[in-house]
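Render this sequence as a predicted structure.
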Amino acid sequence: MHTENLSAPARRWADQGLSVEVLGEHQMFAAVSGEGPALLMIHGFPTSSHDYREIIAQLSPDLRCIAPDMLGYGLSDKPIAFSYSLFQQADAIEQVLSHLGVDCAHVLSHDVGTSVHAELLARQLEGRLSFEILTSSFQNGSLLKGMAQLTPIQKLLEAPANLAEAVVVCENIAPDFVPLLQGLMKRPEALSDEDCIVIKELLLHDDGNRRIPGVYSYVRERYLHQDRWMNALEDTKSPLQFIWAEDDPVAVIEMGNSLAERVPGAQFTRLPGVGHFVPIEAPAEVAEIVRSFISD
């Protein structure tokens, strides 16, 4: 992992983690902080584990917080010849936890991370997960893909006929990237000036903006494997909860309500006045909900 071209704030973030070789040839960054039971945090698209920085600060006194950057994101490798399948992302995360000696963990996920989380639950039900999931906490993510309200850029990325245009947009997205994220937030002021610098740098690191069209190919898997992943949520024997922002314009509250109906044994907490980027906008609320859930 090379960080010499990053700003001081971004390097400070990098210093909180380590790099692990996964899938035989790629390096995956993971922020690791704290002692105690392990809490795996899986981030969303198109950001990184940096989304969890405030939650880590609040929970690391009591938990060993492990927040990987999935391949194609943040400080992890962003290979050109790679499919960016969610199944590969799950494989890589398993390998990170194995490297860290983790045999059981609580899991917190957001956005696309919820699908990776669901795949890990499916593997646990099949008896082939390399660690035990103790509890599951899902934040806003389009597990019911057909209910998502797509942004203009998401619509562009989803249509194969528009791929050439999408590539150009992503190559030139840097000036608009943070404002686009803030446009999905109800609390855009949650991002400090320093946060904005780091978020933009982590996207651009190793041409990450150019990987967005490839990374976003995961969306097809969400349609193809929805039954597998929803069945995993419905059939899991470990405690599960949904933490859902009411004002998310993408993974809308109706989706959260439908998930709660599909998994009636799950705890369901609504967060009013919070938009799509729940870990950034409501870190104190999420940290307290997760802490309480784990301790029950």
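Summary. The chain has a mean pLDDT of 97. The chain is about 45% helix and 15% strand.
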